[in-house]
């Protein structure tokens, strides 16, 4: 069986000549359907670059990425992407922003009414569906953005530090929502973060990325049951995973 | 019921807030004109240099038919020039933003012309086209054209990288992306240009009339000043100000309808 996402010798170099910056790779990695893989590493290690390359929004300098066995060439549409700065537009309400994803794809909005309602309910935004983004807190905006990124039922979700700008408490809360959504919909997720605890809590696998040029150090399988609530986070197994990963980054000299 | 009463309470409190915030301005306004009125008498300033505001009102009122007629003429020049500036500059700015060919040809030319005071062309246009409406319309057009075109270029070039990536990942075509995302996203910056142009439009019309015309408020102000009638000059300035306010008000109203969601509009509504 071929992997859903296969990354094969992918490398990215920006600029040329003396200004050349080796940003990422070479990296080999296979991601199976239904996995939640976190790319964990220090800032500037090229994690976001990898996301863009998987999405087909940026070309690798060498190597190849295949989705479902087909080489990525140009923007991929069977994906949902989300960035640190969300893509909600200020002139549309929450519901209408979610529908923007459908309208842009030429999908019939009326067929998705129930799905939109379900998504909004599962992130506790049903009472805010007719509000504008500026009327919501940062955390609520990101939850709305999750719905926008997955309303078209993508097989793959690329989440580039979606919780990066939130305060610690809101972050904690939204991790739970995100996990809930993932367990319901079961897309394949690649998730960029530099929080070790976040990576361990959410992921089936944590891909540890070295400082620039970002290379794959190792992939750690997190064998803990879902949902990972506070009890799981206090378990000795969870704590051990976090400590092991901390040791790895101490070895890199980044913490 | 409860809703209705809270609504009226809302309006009452809003009026109260308005009075609270603006009484100082009203006092200042009244004090300024009282000072003007009595300073002219107190310092015995000759009437051909400066007249008290009461004279401006009285004599302006007596000359009202002429003032209204000239307001209409200057207003017509302003509106036509402004209208054509919007209709031509907006699509042109859009094209420049999306075409690298135009960006390397017309755009640098426009940036140079932006530095040129457009009013400097006024004598030329009047010598080419005579004393009629057309040269004034062209001057207003030139004055309004550049701020609109340059802001439109900026507007259509400043879509955030995230939104641009989102659009590409949906596989939507250029036209759909334009209608659903690029156009609405560009509107606030376009209105910056529209408003700036509206402020300058009457300036263009008045100066064009100073240079060569036989009607309009600019012509009126020049003639009465030559006749040592500062009272009537102030009356003319008053109507020119009204004209500018009216145009700016119309553009602001349009902004409220087109982009009610934008932060500058929301802030305006809140205060």
Reconstruct the topology from this structure.
The complex is a heterodimer of chains A (255) and B (271).
Chain A: E1 5-14, E2 21-31, E3 36-40, H1 47-54, E4 62-67, E5 70-71, E6 79-82, H2 94-104, H3 113-122, H4 138-150, E7 156-160, H5 168-185, E8 188-193, H6 196-202, E9 205-209, E10 216-221, H7 230-234, H8 236-252
Parallel strand pairs in A: 3-8, 3-9, 6-7, 7-8
Antiparallel strand pairs in A: 1-2, 1-4, 4-5, 9-10
Helix pairs in contact in A: 2-4, 4-5, 6-8
Chain B: H1 2-42, H2 53-62, H3 64-98, H4 100-115, H5 122-129, H6 133-157, H7 161-170, H8 174-211, H9 217-226, H10 230-258, H11 263-270
Helix pairs in contact in B: 2-10, 3-4, 3-6, 3-8, 3-10, 5-6, 6-8, 8-9, 8-10, 9-10
Instruction: Going across the biggest sheet of chain A, name each strand in turn.
Output: 6-7-8-3-9-10
Largest sheet of chain A: 6 strands, mixed
Which radius of gyration of chain B do the C-alpha atoms yield?
24 Å
Given the structure, what is the number of helices of chain B? Answer: 11
Number of strands of chain A: 10
- Average pLDDT rating of chain B: 90
Using only C-alpha atoms, the radius of gyration of chain A works out to 18 Å
What is the structural class of chain B? mainly alpha
Strand content of chain B: under 5%
Helix content of chain A: 25-40%
Derived structural class of chain A: alpha/beta
Multimerization state: heterodimer
| Number of extended strands of chain B | 0
- Shape assignment of chain B: flat
Order of helices and strands of chain B: HHHHHHHHHHH
Low-confidence stretches of chain A: none
Q: How do the helices and strands follow one another from N- to C-terminus of chain A?
A: EEEHEEEHHHEHEHEEHH
